[in-house]
Amino acid sequence: ERFGRFPHRNAILKRRSTQAEVDYLNSAEAFTG
């Protein structure tokens, strides 16, 4: 919701992640499910 999409799905959907999404995914608050 924070990015208007689900950054953890980018690789599966062959989308490029923004730097903000990459930073989020590498953070402790990222979705780990």
TrEMBL record:
Name the Pfam families for this protein.
DUF924 (PF06041)
Which first-to-last residue range defines the signal peptide? none
Q: What is the lineage of its organism?
A: unclassified sequences, metagenomes, ecological metagenomes
InterPro entries reported for this sequence: DUF924 (IPR010323), TPR-like_helical_dom_sf (IPR011990)
Q: What is this protein called?
A: DUF924 domain-containing protein
